[in-house]
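Design a sequence for this backbone.
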């Protein structure tokens, strides 16, 4: 609700400011100057609008690719955790219980502690790295028997590597933002998109007011929308730990399948 309210204030506030600017230009800029802009400024206006649209599309594509890559990294991390949990069921002795417990601790910590920290600071929690390294330590110190156990062990080693690859990818993406130069280009061309039509021609004040409001509100909406989706792990459009939450719930089903208790 707060985001919707802020969005409405940004859009309608910018539109109201544009209306005031249009009326000011109507009174201060001579009619002959506005006429000249209308006669010779059409091409410039088209170029400015094209530049604004190109910048907005580029930024939108950047955000979409970032969110898509972040989603893939979370899925990769979830698959690695599940593969390791399934592997833990195939080993005997205290290593099995310890590995299952550490996987539960890791997944729970990522969901409850690391995710809010990542959304707030753009960094992964040190404790989660500790737990992940502990998992790697436990796996590498297992001595499998020749045969099928060795094959499953190699799969577990690959799952550990995939887990760390996914974490490094998530760490990199957590701090990813739209480059400042793109924001400068978007806002600069957006201002020109709003101002230039005010200088072109000499329509009636009512028409000028409507055109100024619609143009400014549209530009403000695009800027606000891109700002809201700028960070992949926070905001209203974000990557959530839902796959990891599903994995944590599925641990009990895996235990039941193998006849264990959590």
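Sequence:
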């Amino acid at each position: 609700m707060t985001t919707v309210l802020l969005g409405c204030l940004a859009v309608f506030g910018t539109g109201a400011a544009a209306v005031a600017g249009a009326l000011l230009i109507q009174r201060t800029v001579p009619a002959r100057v506005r006429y000249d802009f209308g006669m010779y400024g059409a091409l410039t206006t088209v170029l400015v609008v094209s530049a604004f649209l190109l910048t907005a599309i580029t930024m939108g594509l950047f955000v979409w690719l970032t969110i898509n890559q972040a989603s893939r990294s979370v899925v990769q991390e979830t698959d690695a955790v599940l593969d390791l949990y399934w592997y833990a069921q195939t080993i005997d002795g205290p290593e099995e219980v310890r590995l299952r417990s550490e996987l539960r601790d890791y997944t729970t910590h990522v969901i409850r502690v690391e995710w809010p920290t990542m959304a707030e600071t753009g960094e992964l929690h040190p404790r989660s790295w500790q737990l992940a390294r502990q998992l790697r330590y436990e796996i590498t110190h297992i001595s499998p028997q020749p045969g099928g156990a060795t094959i499953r062990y190699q799969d577990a080693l690959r799952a550990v590597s995939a887990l760390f690859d996914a974490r490094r990818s998530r760490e990199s993406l957590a701090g990813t933002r739209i480059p400042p130069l793109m924001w400068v280009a978007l806002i600069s061309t957006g201002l020109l998109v709003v101002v230039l039509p005010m200088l072109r021609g000499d329509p009636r004040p009512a028409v000028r007011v409507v055109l100024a409001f619609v143009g400014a509100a549209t530009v403000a909406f695009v800027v606000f929308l891109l700002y809201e989706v700028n960070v992949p792990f926070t905001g209203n459009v974000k990557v959530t730990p839902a796959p990891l939450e599903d994995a944590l719930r599925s641990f009990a089903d895996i235990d039941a399948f193998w006849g264990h208790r959590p």
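DSSP finds nine helices and no strands in the chain.
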